[in-house]
Write a structure and sequence with these properties.
Layout: H1 2-17, H2 20-34, H3 38-47, H4 65-77, H5 83-99, H6 107-115, H7 118-124, H8 126-131, H9 144-149, E1 165-172, E2 184-190, E3 196-201, H10 207-217, E4 224-227, H11 236-245, E5 248-251, H12 261-275, H13 283-303, E6 306-315, E7 318-327, H14 329-335, H15 341-352, H16 356-374, H17 390-396, H18 430-439, H19 445-455, H20 465-485, H21 490-495, H22 497-500
Helix pairs in contact: 1-2, 1-3, 4-6, 5-7, 13-16
Length: 504
């Protein structure tokens, strides 16, 4: 805009001095450069230099601090979703939190929250967000006979299935290494609604039993079961179970993860986001993870809106995608005309009993427990669980964004303090070396080492020079501090001797 203003000022002067014919040429030139309409260009050049205010425009605050504070609480209660997902969730979340006595909104605050757009929510939450701070091939190929008997289904083959057709995948909680025994999560994602179920699978033979238990928890019948080509799925046990239950069993193409885009998205957005990447092994970790999934399935399916792809079109090298409005899996299930009235009543009754804040508190508490189990340095040492009250957890939602990341599973493991690994070679002569240094501050570490070698031949080899240099550096820093600030730090320097020599 500043460049356009300069151009208007220069051209307006020429335009004022020019004749009728020359003005037409000036207008042609000006409209070609700026892209302005000819009539608008005429008005600008006639008015002369524009009087534009310097600096940014003053902000127009439509929503006051009370609305913004209530928005932060709802954002924290929704597990920090984006504005586009938070916007359709606000009416549901406000109703649920008021029903459970967690929120009391003034009428004007409620009206402001319900009228706020997704973009305005993102702008209002900007400060809170700022403060919160290679493909491996399988070693053993699945049975070729079973794989040939299972038909292939790609991403474009789904169309618009009814609720009950799911994609399945396994998420390994192995940490940095895949050796040994560790916990694995079976993830099921419904194509039509996005309904997600998670369960633990520690052995291949338990997959059928776990799948049967998940079918009892899902509000709809299992109609289709689409998996990858892992041997956990590609076996006669799973195939025969699906055939007996009347479930359509399909698979994706080998090494084509896009064929299972629905469940792959949930692997990151649900499992990895909530559980993290630590190694989980043993019955204690499995029990804590099972408890976590009991709360996660209700929180994700009833209070976490998600996007659903409506259509995708390719125009040359550009792929254009259009999405349905964000909605929770529960909302999509109830709105689907193929859902029976019995299912609607059952999930509606369950939704009326849920407390999103209580569920989020349980998730945070179990996440902290999982971190304690995974990061425990001594096998058999039992960590002390911390369970904040519901009132304390609710009051903390107002200021949780100031503490940065609140999910315990997303925080990195604290580094252990590095201690001395070898005995201090100068332990017997530290006081003598420091006395020599204080008497002659200009002496270098090499001078001190040579003097020590002359007094005690064969006891202190030249390879200890680097260790002594670190020691002298600490003494010199303390003496410089005393000379500048008048405060002696000799004792502090002596206390830092062990730390300076920790790399020996």
């Amino acid at each position: 805009m500043a460049t356009r203003d300069e151009l208007v000022a220069v051209t307006a002067e020429r335009y004022a001095r020019a004749g009728r014919g020359e003005r037409g040429l000036i207008l042609d030139e000006f409209t070609a450069v700026t892209g302005f309409h000819r009539r608008h260009s005429t008005r600008l050049l006639r008015s002369g230099i524009p009087s534009r205010a310097v600096g940014p425009r003053p902000g127009r605050r439509v929503y006051d601090d009370a609305v913004r504070e209530a928005l932060v609480v709802l954002w924290e209660a929704s597990d920090r979703v984006c504005g586009k997902r938070l916007r359709p969730l606000v009416p549901v979340l406000v109703e649920a939190m008021e029903r459970n006595g967690h929120l009391q909104l003034a009428p004007e605050v409620r009206v402001g929250l319900l009228a706020m757009s997704a973009a305005t929510m993102d702008r209002a939450l900007r400060q809170a967000r700022d403060g919160a701070g290679g493909r491996r091939r399988r070693r053993t190929a699945p049975s070729a006979a079973v794989r040939r008997s299972v038909p292939v289904r790609t991403f474009s083959d789904w169309g618009d299935p009814s609720p009950g057709y799911v994609e399945a995948d396994l998420v390994a909680h192995s940490g940095p290494t895949a050796k040994g025994s560790f916990v694995q999560t079976l993830v099921l994602t419904d194509i039509a609604t996005g309904w997600t179920e998670c369960a633990l699978v520690r052995e291949q033979g338990l997959l059928v039993e776990v799948l049967s238990e998940l079918c009892k928890k899902m509000p709809f019948a299992l109609l289709g079961f689409d998996t990858d080509n892992d041997s956990v799925f590609m076996n006669e046990t799973v195939r025969d179970h699906c055939t007996a239950a009347g479930v359509e069993f399909t698979r994706c193409r080998p090494y084509r993860k896009n064929d299972q885009a629905w469940v792959e998205q949930k692997n990151g957005a649900v499992v990895r986001r909530i559980v993290g990447y630590r190694r989980l092994e043993g019955l204690e970790a499995a029990a804590a993870l099972a408890r976590l999934y009991d709360a996660v399935r209700l929180f994700v399916n009833f209070f976490q809106p998600s996007f659903k792809l409506a259509e995708k079109a390719r125009e040359g090298a550009t792929v254009r995608k259009r999405y349905h409005p964000p909605a929770t899996p529960y909302q999509r299930l109830v709105a689907d005309p193929r859902t029976s009235e019995e299912v609607r009543l059952r999930v509606g009754a369950l939704h009326a009993t849920l407390d999103p804040v209580q569920l989020l508190r349980t998730i945070r508490m179990v996440q902290a427990r999982l971190v304690e189990i995974a990061d425990r340095p001594v096998v058999g040492e039992r960590a002390k669980p911390t369970e904040p009250s519901l009132e304390a957890f609710l009051s903390g939602l107002r200021t949780a964004w100031r503490e940065g990341e609140v999910r315990p599973t997303a925080r990195p493991k604290e580094k252990a303090e590095r201690l001395r690994r070898r005995p201090d070679p100068f332990a017997a002569v530290t006081a003598q070396l420091q006395a020599w240094f204080m008497a002659e501050l200009w002496r270098t570490s090499r001078d001190l080492l040579e003097r020590l070698q002359a007094e005690q031949p064969g006891s202190y080899p030249a390879g200890l020079l680097r260790t002594l240099q670190r020691r002298v550096k600490t003494w010199r820093r303390g003496e410089a501090h005393r000379l500048v600030f008048g405060t002696a730090t000799t004792e502090q320097a002596m206390k830092g001797d062990a730390a300076m020599g920790s790399g020996v």
